[in-house]
Structure formats: C-alpha cells, structure tokens
Amino acid sequence: MVYQDPYGSLNPRMTIRSIVGEPLAVHGLDGDKAATRDKIASLIASVGLLPDMADRYPHEFSGGQRQRIGIARALAMSPELLVADEPVSSLDVSMQGQIVNLLHELNRRLGLTIVLISHDLAIGARVCAQIAVMQAGKIVESGPARQVLATPSHPYTRNLLDSIPRGLQGRTRWYAGNGGAENSGSAARRIAAAPSGARLSV
Q1: 105, 10, 122: which is closest to 114 by C-alpha?
Q2: What are the percentages of helix, strand and coil residues in the chain, rounded to 5?
Q3: Residue 50 carries which DSSP code?
Q4: Half-sphere exposure of 39 (CA within 13 A, CB side)
Q5: Pair 194, 173: CB distance under 8 Å
Q6: 56-69 pLDDT per residue, tens
Q7: Strand runs (DSSP E) across the chain, as ranges?
Q8: What is the percent of the chain where pLDDT is above 90?
C-alpha cells in the first residue's frame, strides 16, 4: 500500500533503513543481516534514491522523496498487487509527474499490477489501461481507459472531464498528447489515438 500523505505515513523517529526494512522484520525475514542490508539498499535504489541515504530521517527529504520511500517500503515483500491511494495529490506538479513515471516504470519492470486511486482523470488518461469511475461509493462507469475517456456514458464522468482546468497545460498534455487545452470532448478524442499506457487501473 502506498499512502496519500508522504509526510504522515512515515515514522519520523525511524531511519529510512528501518522504515523500508520494517515489513521484513514484521514477517521474520530479516535474520540474515547482510542480506537484509543489501535488500534494503536495492529497494531504495529501485525508487531512484541513493543507498547512502538509508541512515537519514524522513524530515531530511522532500515530499516526492518521501513518497519514493513509501513506495520502496511497499515493495519490500515483492507484492504482485500494489494499491496506490492518491499517491500524488499532496505533491506539486513536477513531483507528480516523477512519481507517476516511477509507478509506470515499476509496473513494466516488475510486472506489478497497480490499482491507482485518484480524483484526477488526467493521471488515468496518462498511464492506466482500465478506468472505473466511482460516485458516492458506487462504480458508475468502467472499461478500457480510451473508451471511458473518449466516449463517457455517465454524466459524472463527463463532469470530471469538464473539470480539468484549461490553463493547466501539463495536465492537458496528459490528456491530449500535446499542449492544446481543448474542451473535454476534443481532448478525449485525442486520447483515443494516443499510445497505450502501462497496465494500471484507476
């Protein structure tokens, strides 16, 4: 599980080595200290951080780096399924793109299935193969990402598409494939012609 808040999800009194290695300790898999140390270093490196950062504390890292630490911890038990709950909503736009790209890369490299929970359909348009739209706790529309975004059948889905601000060029690029900030219908038509993304679901 990757949590929404990279600040609140890490124990401020634990080093990064202890945080990432905690799942191994909980499951009794840290008996070989040298192997555990190497495993933790590998996990830290796999999310784009330097292994020599392992003895630092969470307050010494940026929000994006803390979310990378949370992802490394979630990978400690080599899961087949990873749930990412709004993993970028508390980060600035530049960090959001980096974390989404990291999840995309982990998905491809590890064959990892990721359930990405997000209120931002622009993220779904960028990386997801399947999209399920929920309203009031119920799924109101689901299907292949291209289909849902190009021809939304539910009013709530259409409202979500229309809510993407025209001025946010970075996010409309995720929609339209370039810098054009068209309305949702035009942007969605471009999505249908865009290359397929990673095998993620939102």
Answers
A1: 105
A2: 50, 15, 35
A3: -
A4: 21
A5: no
A6: 999 999 999 999 99
A7: 81-85, 113-117, 128-135, 138-144, 200-201
A8: 53
Q: Does the pLDDT value for residue 109 go beyond 80?
A: yes
Asked if residue 86 lies in contact with residue 99, where contact means CB atoms within 8 angstroms, the answer is no
Burial class (CB in 10 A: 0-12, 13-18, 19+), 125: buried
149-153 long-range contacts, Cβ below 8 Å, gap at least 24? 149/121, 149/124, 149/125, 149/175, 149/188, 149/191, 149/192, 150/188, 150/189, 150/191, 150/192, 151/188, 152/188
User: What distances in angstroms separate CA 185 from CA 120, 126, 127, 197, one per listed residue?
Assistant: 16, 16, 19, 20
Q: 147: exposed, middle or buried (C-beta count within 10 Å: 0-12, 13-18, 19+)?
A: middle
Measured between alpha carbons, how far is 72 from 108 in angstroms, rounded to an integer? Answer: 16
Please write the tens of the pLDDT for every residue from 73-102.
Answer: 999 999 999 999 999 988 888 888 899 899
Q: 169-181 burial by CB neighbour count: b if 16+ within 10 A, else e?
A: eebbbbbbbeeeb
pLDDT higher at 9 or 169: 9
Beta bridge partners of 131: 143
pLDDT tens digits for range 165-198 = 665 433 433 443 333 333 434 444 443 444 444 4
What's the start-to-end Cα distance of the chain, in Å?
14
Q: Give the pLDDT of residue 25.
A: 94
